[in-house]
Amino acid sequence: xxxxxxxxxxxxxxxxxxxxxxxxxxxxxxxxxxxxxxxxxxxxxxxxxxxxxxxxxxxxxxxxxxxxxxxxxxxxxxxxxxxxxxxxxxxxxxxxxxxxxxxxxxxxxxxxxxxxxxxxxxxxxxxxxxxxxxxxxxxxxxxxxxxxxxxxxxxxxxxxxxxxxxxxxxxxxxxxxxxxxxxxxxxxxxxxxxxxxxxxxxxxxxxxxxxxxxxxxxxxxxxxxxxxxxxxxxxxxxxxxxxxxxxxxxxxxxxxxxxxxxxxxxxxxxxxxxxxxxxxxxxxxxxxxxxxxxxxxxxxxxxxxxxxxxxxxxxxxxxxxxxxxxxxxxxxxxxxxxxxxxxxxxxxxxxxxxxxxxxxxxxxxxxxxxxxxxxxxxxxxx
Length: 382
Description:
12 strands; alpha/beta; globular; 13% strand; two-stranded antiparallel ribbon
């Protein structure tokens, strides 16, 4: 019997380029077709990545106090979100935080700092951290995410040992002015090009669930394909209280799967990462999403908590996948139990309850502010 999505996978495996009509067909597939969509996308994922999952680990080097006005961000100018705010970690602290994720199985560490973009002094500071990290863990990949780069800064990072640079497009060019006014879409594209020109692996992705139309979503994905991004992190909007998008719950688990599948069809050989917000939006379908995505973040995110790291590692193993880089006789596991965040259920932790008014998709999730790991005295969630 003819199966449209298996036929679509056949065409992608033969080198075809996904069209807008085909992308819309994936996004508009019915619930009855959902497993067919996932099965077809999984063929592409396994053809290029077999049964491996790349584990990434975030270190938030500098949190909050950003001068940009991105509507989705808890660190934005004017944000009332009760997040951790701190200036630069010391190099030894950054290396220590990164090492926890590496011991738990991460093969890539992402060093992130809030702000529009780094000064030359900031670049030197991060270069020092990277050199120390590479001395102790020469095998680890390092991805820097420092904002909009000026001329020459990408080359400095490359010379210091940085392997990749993350700068997300986030949404389509036509939609960009609706989510940020303090810089332009073109600034983001230019930064990704700077990273590529310097020999850094380009990492650029999306935030979905901000009210974008299907065509705007496809525009953004096709722009990432045109940029030839080596890895595409897909963030699902976490509507922090105190930001303009608080109370925005537009995603269902099934639609999140369709979005991941559409990106896999558009970029079959690209590392596809289910990133921030996956726990609250994919929920019980996270294991199914691993059939499409081949990468995830372990532990917590920049300003919010993720699910227990052991639960992620168990999910990978239980579904027949292996952590990329793990030896044949080893299983990645947390080096030691993470200390629980004190009073994690208190109102001070800024939990955001789902708002289901106005016909928005119901969500069982919530945003829980990170109170452990970098910038605190508590152990990280690994």
